Amino acid sequence: MASLIAILDLKGKPLIQRTYRDDVSPSQIERFLPLALELEEDGQAVKPCFSSGGVNYMHIRHSNLYLLALSKRNTNAAEIIIFLHRLVSVLIEYFKELEEESIRDNFVIIYELLDEMMDFGYPQTTESKILQEYITQESHKLEVQASVPITVTNAVSWRSEGIRYRKNEVFLDVIESVNMLVNANGNVIRSEILGAVKMKCYLSGMPELRLGLNDKVMFETTGRTSRGKSIEMEDVKFHQCVRLSRFESDRTISFIPPDGEFELMTYRLSTPVKPLIWVEAAVESYRGSRVEYMVKVRAQFKRRSQANNVEIFVPVPEDADTPKFRASTGGVQYAPEKSAFVWKIKQLGGGREFLMRAHFGLPSVKNVDDVDRRPPIQVKFEIPYFTVSGIQVRYLKIVEKSGYQALPWVRYITQSGDEYAMRTLQEKDASIQPI
Length: 435
Hints:
This protein is an alpha+beta fold and 435 residues long. It has helices at 32-41, 77-95, 100-104, 107-117, 128-134, 139-144, 216-222, 244-250, and strands at 4-9, 14-19, 49-52, 55-62, 65-71, 118-119, 122-123, 169-182, 188-202, 208-213, 234-238, 253-255, 260-269, 277-286, 290-299, 306-315, 321-327, 331-335, 340-349, 353-361, 377-384, 393-399, 407-422, 425-427. It has two domains: 4-153, Beta-Lactamase (2-Layer Sandwich); 163-207 and 234-240 and 259-435, Sandwich (Immunoglobulin-like). Strands 11-13-9-8-23-21-16-19-18 form a nine-stranded mixed beta sheet, with no helix packed on it. The protein has a five-stranded antiparallel beta sheet with strand order 2-1-5-4-3. Strands 17-20-15-14-24 form a five-stranded mixed beta sheet, with no helix packed on it. A hairpin with a 5-residue loop joins strand 8 (169-182) and strand 9 (188-202). The longest helix has 19 residues, at 77-95.
């Protein structure tokens, strides 16, 4: 339980705060940032939870804000940290962006939300769709709502009763993001797959859904055999609608879904992954006059698949100018604000390989031959109807007491993550021939 919740700016000044218990003085808020800075000066990493003077400080950072919870009791820190993340999500749902200005402009609504989301220090309703039913951004509507929706007191607090659709449909997207770092020798030194199952539910009544995946642990637990590939998911996190006890017993993902869009689950796989899109570049510099690049891209996935919206960011010297490009496919643009040029390929088929050439002038004499200091090549892409992990939706069952028929739609997408980088920018190699 939390005694106090506050949102602070980067200087540690509270923008808004709400006290739920009287055992922690609001003056303790001002001690947070000095304590955090003191830990940094001592060479310690600032952890999301630390204690000082009998007070527990639990915090997260979002953009240029700190969200802070204080408590004197032996609190479930993980629960409070999750609550702070949920608070961020709710405020973003309301105000689109969470920053100092949006907080200053919406004090009344934020206080209303803090009162409804936590009671006497215990987290309550954190589902934004339900909160929006009775806490609106138009103040006159608050008076119209005579009572809190019954949803808040139901066992299922994330879904309202009486929902009706003429056409009952479920859309399920399995989206995997690949993070990868390749060194100058072409070896993968780090790779991971971050997956998310996102849903759009347009279903009447109070349906129960059961989702089955090719989960390796499920096959081992139940003694079943897998006809195809099975995967072992790590760090699995679920939306609150999932019955965790059922998942822990037989790995069945059973839930009553919220209405509309939501993220059902996330997972991670640390299995080694070979680069789906391989890029290498050779550079030939003429000191003080010009620099030339030869870039080769190769799609290292099956021919029946196709990567869309491929973007290859190749770093260049900061003072490079007068760019000239020639590519066998796609288009190339100079992005001086990023000190790079971007090769854009709308569609890249599996097994295909293309070349491009770039020429830049160098107005000043600088050492451009220091390979170790060059930023890596960054790659962005999206491959529909494909998952790098091999995850598959084995079934999606929809059960509702009225017995209606619903249409489930499943889509798979693999995309580049926040870091898909290759340090393969080398001095000119005769193996890459001019276009």
